[in-house]
Amino acid sequence: MFTITTDKKQPSSVHHLNRGVDLYIHIPFCKSKCDFCFYISVTGTSEEERFCYLKALEREISARWSAYEGKQVVVNSLYIGGGTPSILSLKQWEVLVMILTRFWDLRTIPEVTVECNPSSTTQEKLGFFKEIGVNRLSFGVQNVDDSVLAAMGREGTKDALPGLLESTRSAGINNINCDILFGLPGENTASVVQSVDVLVELSVPHISVYPFTLQAKAGFFMRMVCKNALLLPAYLRIAHYQEAINRLLEWEYLRIHTAHFGISYRYECIQHRNYWDGGEILGFGVSAQSFVDGCYLRNTEDLNGYVKNNDNILSISLSKKDQIRRWVFMGLTKKLRFHYEAMVDRFGLDSLTVVKEGLERMDREGMLSKKQNIVQLTDKGMEHSHLIPILYFRFENQNYLRYALRIPEAQLSKFPET
Ligand SMILES: C[S@@+](CC[C@H](N)C(=O)[O-])C[C@H]1O[C@@H](n2cnc3c(N)ncnc32)[C@H](O)[C@@H]1O
Ligand code: SF4
After folding, report:
1. What's the pLDDT tens digit per position in 122-163?
2. Residues 6+ apart with CB under 8 A from 344
3. Edge-to-edge order in the sheet of strand 374-377
4. 213, 178, 174, 169: which is closest to 196 by C-alpha?
5. Atom of ligand 1 nearest to the CA of 84
6. Which of 99-108, 125-134, 200-209, 238-247 has the lowest mean pLDDT?
């Protein structure tokens, strides 16, 4: 029997904005498109096209931020992601910063992250980032075996890494994340372990380990098919991912979130934590996602449409019960765990009734472990985590699963709604 007890009497009914907001800006430009990548980005854009995009960003921010102005909302974090923000020239960065500082004082935001590709991160840009208030950088490394990357149309950056990290630190930015991606065609266990070891030996304080995910997005499958890329069988993808995790734990990195490892909790990414904790996030730019007042929003994924002011926004409103389901699901699968007291604090004493049946079933099936009201997935639970929102928590609004979580229709119809 899955039992949880609490001393909590009543939820603290805090207005949603009291927790502040987190901001995300999408920069959809890359030097070349990596075959494995499903993010919305384009290559070969002209100077003028990039400026037009920045203008469109300004228009969107101006329109949407006006609802917050004068309310003294605290901004917890700003994440400039992509695509590849580091590909913008210094001149384009200056324009972007001019736009952003119309609305926010970047220097007062506790966490300001920029996503960078090692090959477009120069010493000058690092100095500029420091100057404007950037205090966290996230580099895409993916794998240190350059032949694996070359087969996916990506430049290898292994040799450049030591110099890059040294320059980043000497520019005064020490909060550094590197992404590694496992399950790519052509990789083997040795390259997995080596990728972890290289980053650990370079004292990277935060490492994100992502399993290669296939997404039904325009262009994505075509790129894989045209390359005739032989996908690794699922068992090997899982084995490589597990190997990377084990290696990081052996090196005594802490597992901060499901895919995030750090030498200390000090390096936890504020934006990710807040988003997965059901916080308010405002995303600007093509394909950017937001979560505002119980509503999931996603901007158009069509770059031309976005620039032409086509305000095509996907909007999926979640009932209070679905918000509880979302919070528990994100807690288990993204944050690694959720605390029952925190759930009561946020959603009230009756929130357990919404997820109790699902949690009990997961418990019976060996997918959960519980220690002092902290609930987390077992290894078996991790392996089947994609089934949680379909099978165990039964969202009322199936559009959230279809469009926000992008769960294929075939999977949804396999488990019909009750
Ligand atoms: C939007 S990219 C930004 C990083 C930067 N553009 C670069 O590549 O150096 C963020 C991360 O998404 C991850 N990623 C890309 N494609 C993925 C996929 N198919 N499955 C899982 N993660 C993926 C990669 O690890 C990548 O570093
Ligand atoms: S992984 Fe980074 S560089 Fe490659 S296509 Fe995706 S966003 Fe661009």
Report:
1. 999 999 999 999 999 999 999 999 999 998 889 998 999 999
2. 6, 8, 11, 351, 352
3. 337-339, 374-377, 368-371
4. 178
5. 6
6. 238-247
Ligand 1 proximity of 179 Cβ (cutoff 6 Å): yes
The closest ligand to the CA of 80 turns out to be 1
Helical segments of 12-137, H only: 47-65, 90-103, 123-132
Q: Alpha-carbon distance 398 to 257, whole Å?
A: 26
CATH 1.10.10.920 in the chain, residue ranges? 319-418
End-to-end Cα, the chain, rounded Å: 23
How is domain 18-275 classified at the architecture level of CATH?
Answer: Alpha-Beta Horseshoe (3.80)
351 close to ligand 1 (CB < 6 Angstrom): no
- 235: Cα within 13 Å, side-chain hemisphere: 0
Ligand 2 in reach of 253 Cβ (< 6 A): no
Tens of pLDDT, residues 365-390: 999 999 988 999 998 998 888 889 88
Task: Give me ligand 2 centre to Cα 168, in Å.
Answer: 20
User: Under 8 Å CB-to-CB from 94, ≥6 apart: which residues?
Assistant: none
| Side-by-side strand order, sheet with 136-142 | 254-257, 260-262, 206-211, 175-182, 136-142, 111-116, 75-82, 21-27, 280-284, 289-292, 295-299, 313-317
Name the closest ligand to CA 115.
1
Q: Which two tokens stand for residue 382?
A: 């991790």
Rounded-to-integer distance, Cα 349 and Cα 344, Å: 5
| Tens digit of each residue's pLDDT (9 = 90 or more) over 8-27 | 544 443 345 678 999 999 99
Nearest protein Cα to ligand 1, atom 10: 140
Distance 201 CA to ligand 1 centre (A): 22
Whether 81 is in the pocket of ligand 2, judged by its Cβ within 6 Å, is: no
Domain covering 319-418, topology: Arc Repressor Mutant, subunit A (1.10.10)
Is residue 41 in contact with ligand 1, taking CB distance under 6 Å?
A: no
Q: Is 82 in the pocket of ligand 1 (CB under 6 A)?
A: yes
Ligand nearest to the CA of 181: 1
Centroid of ligand 1 to alpha carbon of 287 (angstroms): 15
Give 83 Cα–ligand 1 centroid separation in angstroms.
Answer: 8
In Å, how far are 180, 221, 252 from 227, measured between CA atoms? 21, 10, 38
CATH 3.80.30.20, the chain: domain bounds: 18-275
From CA 60, how far away is CA 208, in angstroms rounded? 30
The response to whether residue 26 sits with its C-beta less than 6 Å from ligand 2 reads no
